[in-house]
Amino acid sequence: MTDDHSDQTTLHIGYGAGFAGDRPQAALALARDLATRRGPRYLALELLAERTLAQCQQRRHDDETSGYALRLFDFLEPILPTCLASGIPVITNGGAAHPVAAAHRLRGWLDDQGFHNARIACVLGDDLVEQLGALPTPDWLPENVVLDEVVSCNVYIGAEQIQQALEEGADIVLCGRVADPSMAVGAIRHGLGWSAEDPELTAIALATGHLLECCTQITGGYFADPITNPVPDPAHPGCPIIELGTEGQLIVTKTASTGGMVSARTVKEQLLYEIHDPAAYLTPDGVMDVSRAQVIDHGNNRVEVRDIHGYPPPATLKGNLGLTGLWFGEAGISYAGPRALARAQLAREIVMTRAAELTPNLAPRLDIVGVCSVLGDAGGEVISQRLDTGDGVEDVRLRLGVVDRDRGAIQALLDDFESLYTNGPAGGGGIRTHLVESLRTEDFMIDRHAVSTFLAWY
């Protein structure tokens, strides 16, 4: 399998971010790598998650010039000079709750930098929040939803408008709640001329997007284990790139001269990531079947994926509501030295007793970090078992977490927790408490014909 980049019929696409908190430096290395390649090239930035979108919508409510991904410009500004000079379109869902606001800011920055001819396309139509006030209430809205608690209402849309934007000459495509793999699907349909009516080719495009969407997760990030899965230079994993032939030949590789690795194992892990049914992964663009896929490691960070199949897209689209109405309280106190665990256990019992007396309607969870803080259950059975065998531990932290609608009750419980300084077991220290609004999400399904998407240009 060649790694010759001179074949101008091969499409090259890389994702420079896998979530809103990713590293912009890796995206710049990706842009520079893509600039050395020939053929159709695209760079995508995946910067959106369900709660991220709700948070962006809240910021938009406070400031109409905001509402896009907080770090969108940390990613865009370093890479755009290279991408624009090399003819590499950039596609991102970092427009989040307000792609138009992002476009206005980006237009200003591009003009300041002398890129007056750069074209920005916004993909719109995924935001349905304005429909919630209509009468009668939309039939796709879950019956239990309290409208006053809705802060965001978006539908996962597909690749159609991304492809259209690229065909009309977009240099940067700003999207909101487009499905993560769809950014690649739109680019591939544009670059290779694949038809949206071909479910087999669409499935290969979906696999490309799915393999790339978490960025460095497929190049050794979230894979490394120093004993079983050692990864070269894990502090600097490179962004993934997929080379895609006109007939669907798919090679996963990564940015040159970077850390991390691409192996059959990292590819298999990502191929199955967040897939509930490998034979039927539902997306707005089609249904992907990887149940018979072959993953072939050619060495030198090059892995081929074959035998991906597909079916026509589903009749409905998935939507996501961002909801307020709940509050999250958290508190912690540390115990160290001789009998630290016994003292933390006593503090836990005190907090449980006080909570039952002061805030009986709350259901706090109490973990002891160092003994059981992840695998515990709401009823406390697991931590009780661990406490029976945890004698000898000399560095632990009692953690309280609680979610409820009653903000006042949570604050009262946190205040009482802080009194452990002078009312609790000996040697407790480092108490921290905080109380924040808790954003939650709820899914719904909507007839795909009820959603209209369109482009706006800047």
Automatic annotation (TrEMBL):
<dbReference type="Pfam" id="PF07287">
    <property type="entry name" value="AtuA"/>
</dbReference>
<dbReference type="InterPro" id="IPR010839">
    <property type="entry name" value="AtuA_N"/>
</dbReference>
<feature type="domain" description="Acyclic terpene utilisation N-terminal">
    <location>
        <begin position="12"/>
        <end position="452"/>
    </location>
</feature>
<protein>
    <recommendedName>
        <fullName>Acyclic terpene utilisation N-terminal domain-containing protein</fullName>
    </recommendedName>
</protein>
